[in-house]
Specification:
It is a single chain. By secondary structure, this protein is of the alpha+beta class. It contains 8 helices and 9 strands. A hairpin with a 6-residue loop joins β6 and β7 (512-519). α3 (27-119) packs antiparallel against α4. It is elongated, with a radius of gyration of 57 Å. Residues 418-430 have a biased composition (Basic and acidic residues). Residues 431-445 have a biased composition (Low complexity). Residues 474-538 form the SH3 domain.
């Protein structure tokens, strides 16, 4: 990977840092950041490799190539000079030979002319002598040419022998040595290049191991839980829509419809508490969750976070309480330090004037009081939020909410819509405040606001319930426990496998059945999961 593109890649894809991302970082994002760090380290190692190759390999190759070119050129020039010298000597030998041949032919002619002249009786003695002198001259010239030719031939043969046996082999040996030097240099430089790579290979291996480790650190389940923790609202799903029989006028229909609409509207609130009418302007998964990163930011929120969903409000309150606790601890430490300083100044006035610390101490005490007051306020808000959440997950809170008050369902299936005494005071059951429909962990089912056929509505002047939630009345049937059950929610009772109990209220669609049993302590009542029991209900006469 080239160094410059790798560094640009790391720089361009480096995630932007924010406080929220640091608090809720996904394992995949952390792994991606670690991979970017490893890529940056790899780029750094590639820079080291490039620098070492430049200094230790490329420069050596350039120097060696230059020396080889110069030495080869010198050797080739030397060989050319030797060859030219040999060719020159061979040319001299050829000329000497031609001179010898010419002198030899002229000598033969002179001898032949002398013999003809000597045999010719018509020629005078002077002419014959002239031919003899010419013959001797030509013979002498021929012998000189012969000697020169022999000498040049000896010189040429010696030079040719020296050329092909000594001088030219030396040139070829020099060229061979240069080529071997070039080949040996290639071998050394290849090994050196490999050594340069090998020197950084442990670091590169660690970088690759870091990438693999970063990949192994990704946990999709944890990332999903971060998303859930970040965006869960705590609102409960809307309850079942009741059937409205228009053929039977019901005076309480309007009130019930109004109550249902209000509860449905409450349950239709989403991420930041927006209502159903505003959902059209929001985009996201099924109009519930949005992709806006600032969806749960603290900008523009109320001071008590009441405009946030329950779960998000509780998280914000917990963070605020922790922040205030840290501020209180810091301010307390600062106040204690000022107190000690004041005591030292009072004990020894030479060190300082206590009055200079008095004003700072008073300001610190005032700040500490304000922080403690604010801490108590947010702790109360957090307790209220926790109590509300605890109530919403109890079995009793899953019953019908009517007219702003949870209805009490008696053993005969009737509902006490308005539990008031003669003074008009409300007597809610032990479940506490209002809550939207919620399913208990044991049931795994959603809450239903509809009643079973035949349950109807009871009289409005029934007596309020006692501390055991409901009065002991005629049971609706019996049930047998199919599995053991440990009570973990408010209002539930434990039971063992095979135990028989009396049914005093059937399942209203929320996955819970109210039962009772007689023990040494008297009658015990509570809720058990419907899926854990097998019920046998008595026949009920509805003619009355």
């Amino acid at each position: 990977m080239p160094t410059a593109p790798a560094k640009r890649l790391v720089k361009n894809y480096q995630p932007k840092k924010s406080k929220e991302d640091e608090e809720n970082e996904f394992s995949s994002l952390i792994a991606f950041k670690n991979v970017l760090k490893e890529v940056a380290d790899l780029a750094g190692q590639r820079e080291v490799v490039a620098e070492n190759l430049q200094n230790q390999v490329l420069q050596g190759i350039a120097l060696l190539a230059k020396n080889l070119r110069d030495e080869r050129k010198k050797a080739l020039n030397q060989g050319a000079v030797l060859t030219q010298s040999l060719h020159t000597q061979i040319g001299t030998l050829d000329r000497a030979k031609r001179s010898y041949e010419k002198a030899f032919r002229e000598a033969e002619k002179a001898i032949e002319g002398y013999h003809k002249a000597d045999a010719d009786f018509h020629l005078s003695r002077a002419d014959v002598e002239k031919q003899r002198v010419n013959m001797n001259i030509r013979n002498s010239q021929s012998e000189d040419a012969k000697s020169e030719y022999a000498n040049q031939l000896q010189i040429t043969n010696k030079q040719q022998q020296q050329h092909y046996q000594i001088a030219l082999p030396e040139v070829f040996n020099k060229l061979q040595e240069l080529d071997e030097k070039r080949t040996r240099g290639m071998k050394e430089f290849i090994k050196r290049a490999a050594d340069v790579e090998y020197e950084v290979s442990p670091i590169i291996a660690r970088c690759l191991e870091g990438m693999v480790k970063a990949a192994d650190s990704i946990n999709e389940k944890d990332d999903s839980m971060i998303v859930i923790e970040k965006y869960q609202s705590g609102f409960q799903p809307p309850g079942d829509i009741p059937f409205e029989d228009l053929s039977k006028p019901d005076p309480d229909a309007s009130a019930h419809s109004q109550t249902h609409n209000s509860s449905t509207g409450l349950n239709h609130m989403t991420g930041k508490g927006t209502t159903k009418d505003k959902l059209k302007k929001r985009v996201g998964i099924f109009g519930i969750f949005t992709g806006n990163k600032n969806n749960l930011s603290t900008d523009g929120l109320k001071e008590d976070f009441s405009d946030l969903p329950p779960t998000q409000r509780r998280k914000k309150l917990m963070a605020k309480v922790q922040e205030l606790q840290q501020k209180v601890a810091q301010e307390q430490a600062a106040s204690d330090g000022l107190m000690k300083m004041k005591g030292v100044y009072e004990a020894n006035s030479m060190l300082g004037d206590p009055r200079t610390v008095e004003e700072q101490l008073n300001e610190s005490v005032n700040r500490l009081d304000r922080l403690r007051h604010e801490l108590v306020r947010y702790q109360k808000l957090l307790d209220q939020a926790n109590n509300q959440t605890f109530i919403q997950h109890s079995p009793q809170s899953n019953r019908v909410i009517q007219n702003g008050q949870r209805a009490s369902r008696h053993s005969n299936g009737s509902s006490n819509e308005n539990s008031h005494d003669d003074n008009g005071e409300d007597h809610p059951d032990d479940a506490g405040s209002l809550s939207s429909s919620s399913a208990s962990p044991e049931s795994g089912l959603g809450t239903s606001h509809t009643s079973l056929p035949g349950s109807g509505h009871g009289s409005t002047n029934e007596q309020p319930i006692n501390d055991e939630y409901y009065e002991a009345d005629t049971p609706l049937g019996k049930c047998r426990a199919l599995y053991p059950f440990d009570a973990t929610s408010e209002g539930s009772i434990p039971m063992s496998e095979g135990e028989e109990l009396e049914v005093i209220e059937v399942d209203q669609g929320d996955g819970w059945t109210r039962v009772r049993r007689f023990s040494s302590k008297g009658w015990e009542e509570g809720f058990v999961p419907t899926s854990y029991i097998e019920c046998t209900l008595y026949a009920v006469d509805h003619r009355n």
